[in-house]
Fold:
Amino acid sequence: MSSQRVWLVFGPKGWIGEQLIAMLKAQGETVHASVNRLEDRNLIEKELDEIKPTHVLNAAGKTGRPNVDWCEDHQQEVIRSNVIGVLNLADLCFIRGIHMTNYATGCIYSYDEAHPLGSGIGFKEDDPPNFDGSFYSKTKGAVEKLLRSFPNVLTLRLRMPISDDLHSRSFITKISKYEKVVDVPNSMTVLTELLPVSLEMTKRNLKGIYNFTNPGVISHNQILALYKEFIDPNFAWKNFSLEEQAKILKAGRSNNELDVSKLLKEFPDIPDIQTSMRGVFQRMKKNLGK
Structure:
């Protein structure tokens, strides 16, 4: 069956794109790395017609370096990639009958009265976004609404992605380097467990929007306590409030819990984030030779 599938990955040099390509190659799949930018419609059109993929994975887009505050000062560039570019790709795939999986974000929600912090009540796939405190989240919320009109698209809402190493893009690495951190429970995505699931979802031809995190929530302090336990016994950190954090950031940050009932109906064995995170640090300790 694998010989009948042809994959084309956008964002192949990015953190998630590289992992997807490695996984597909390990499975013996035929996979190509796109050489074009999402906003270059004519070039993407030509590439699709030359490669004739059966499955397109989009892991491209602007998230900002070193963080999403970058997007506040580069709004047109962000729109070009995160909105126009994604819609270009979805539309061209739709015209050709190609399944597209879009690696998106769940950072379009913030705890509110109907979904209070600590309540265990998560945002569902059909809940309208209620967070646009950063320009990054604003573009992601806007494009997701429009992607609902494309029946060929699978949208996966990742949050605060985590890997088994100290990659610079991993949420663990980021917060371990901050001078101070807030301590808020959040839904998060452990890539080791969920990226293989995303490929299986594509193979199953699933469509629509899925919250794509491990079940449950975990806080910053809980993660850093595990970092101290497994990686660096001398590690220490300081907390500050959301109000204090807001004073040093250009853009707001999303904090939420996502309801993953829909995902668990398809994949009931995905471990909860508390269990999963211990596994992450056990593997990380081994990977680092600790």
About this structure: The CA atoms of residues 193 and 270 lie 7 Å apart.
